[in-house]
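hi! just following up on the protien thing from before. the input was this:
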Amino acid sequence: MKSIIITGSTRGIGLGLADAFLARGQAATVHGRTPQSVQQATETLAAKHGRDRLHGFAADVGDLSQMEALWTAAQNRFGAVDIWINNAGLGHDMTPMWQLPPEAVQAVVEANILGTLNGARVAIRHMQKQGHGQLYNMLGHGATGKTRPGMAVYGMSKAAVKYLTDALIEEVGEETAVQISSLSPGMVITDLITDRFAADPEVAKRAKRIMNILADRVETVAPWLADRILANHRTGARIRWLTPPKIMWRFLTAPIRKRNLFDD
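and the predicted 3d structure came back as:
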């Protein structure tokens, strides 16, 4: 049994990963920003999987000392942390950078960049001490260098995460038991995506047409990612759901393979 910390796992892809790991007999530490969100998520998961392999902890990813406390809580509960997944992140409206509220920009930078830095610092340091472990950073739009209007701040943050991941792979090196890799879930229907279009119904309508071609639900992507994470034994792996061949195939088959991911 592996002990796994997933930051930002009270909803969306993070919660889906916790559910998938528990279903596969692993131990999961669920993390969120507030005790209320953590309690709600753990109760949902406990109803399906019981509490023996489940733990919850609330912490601010922007505070290094709180990330240290997250590690300690999971280690005390399960004896070790085998896998740490930096999943916590925030998005923003599809709005030009200079029109975003300052607090929205700061929140994205703190969660996506500083939160990933803090999680990586804690995970690598403690994994080196215990002699083993895997760190995964969650990539997203911007990690490939492509740009899109209205996504400047979010895309910048994920480009930074991609650079950080590549740099850590080199800094840690292969002559160690600590492995650094990345996850690319593609377009997953969560509030991180749908909230971007909430303010403009016409933009949302156009976005849904593309998402019905390229996107997937959490319950489709999370188990696939969990299986690949558990099967991976090397550093530098990039576990990617939505590959270029898959994108091409979906566009080619879109006229005959109708999908509607937004039905209740």
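The radius of gyration is 18 Å.
Residues 102-130 form the longest helix (29 residues).
cheers
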